[in-house]
């Protein structure tokens, strides 16, 4: 026979409502008589709850246990250098070494700080986009491509429009002048096509 929900909430250092929610969501189970076995419930609660979201008196002991097991795991399986570099880049701290001990492990606090910095940077980018200070790269690329295509088409339509007037002024045959203009213009457009626009 276990203890009541209120008694278990008091033992764990959380509210009665938190215990009710844990039972409703299936994180902890109750005995057949409706009571709660504290040891069993603690094990279930700990295994199915994110350490960062733990509350109550029990959270401190769990945090210490988690830190110790992280350090033990890090000794056998170090965090890859790429992950450490990513945390450093996110924090803008390329000069300092990340980690709290040997084996290259990243402390939970440091990784969480990197996550928060990344969230803040993402929020800033969203805000700048909403204010119209940032543009979508795909839309900008499409706009530049569309503008260049319209410019090209306008130039390709230019020789037939002006060849007759130019030929009359120069006293030459209109069709021959149009062919020469078209040939040189196409060669010029091919040269211009070599220009690459980098929107990164």
What descriptive keywords fit this protein?
200 residues, mainly alpha, 3 domains, 0% strand, rod-shaped
Give the N-terminus to C-terminus distance in angstroms. 66 Å
Number of helices: 9
Largest sheet: none
Q: Please tell me the overall pLDDT.
A: 77
Number of strands: 0
Number of domains: 3
Query: How large is the radius of gyration?
Result: 35 Å
What's the oligomerization state? single chain
Your description of this structure?
This protein has 200 residues and is mostly helical. It has 3 domains: 5-70, no CATH class; 78-130; 137-193. The chain has 9 helices and no strands. The protein has helices spanning 5-12, 16-25, 38-47, 57-76, 81-91, 108-130, 137-156, 158-170, 174-193. The longest helix is centred in the middle third of the chain and has 23 residues, at 108-130. The relative contact order is 0.06.
Give the SSE layout.
Blueprint: H1 5-12, H2 16-25, H3 38-47, H4 57-76, H5 81-91, H6 108-130, H7 137-156, H8 158-170, H9 174-193
Helix pairs in contact: 1-2, 5-6, 8-9
Protein name: Elements of external origin
Would you summarize the structure shown here?
By secondary structure, this protein is mainly α. The chain has helices at 5-12, 16-25, 38-47, 57-76, 81-91, 108-130, 137-156, 158-170, 174-193.
């Amino acid at each position: 026979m276990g203890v009541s929900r209120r008694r278990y909430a008091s033992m764990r250092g959380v509210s009665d409502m938190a215990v009710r929610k844990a039972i409703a969501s299936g994180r902890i189970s109750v005995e057949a008589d409706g009571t709660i076995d504290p040891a069993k419930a603690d094990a279930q609660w700990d295994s199915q709850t994110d350490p960062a979201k733990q509350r109550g008196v029990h959270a401190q002991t769990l945090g210490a246990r988690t830190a110790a097991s992280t350090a033990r795991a890090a000794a056998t399986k170090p965090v890859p250098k790429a992950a450490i570099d990513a945390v450093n880049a996110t924090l803008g701290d390329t000069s300092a070494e990340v980690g709290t001990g040997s084996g290259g492990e990243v402390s939970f606090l440091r990784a969480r700080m990197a996550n928060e910095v990344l969230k803040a940077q993402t929020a800033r980018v969203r805000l700048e986009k909403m204010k119209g200070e940032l543009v979508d790269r795909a839309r900008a690329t499409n706009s530049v491509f569309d503008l260049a295509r319209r410019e090209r088409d306008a130039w390709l339509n230019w020789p037939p429009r002006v060849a007759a007037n130019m030929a009359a002024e120069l006293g030459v045959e209109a069709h021959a002048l149009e062919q020469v203009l078209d040939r040189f213009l196409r060669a010029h457009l091919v040269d211009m096509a070599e220009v690459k626009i980098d929107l990164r």
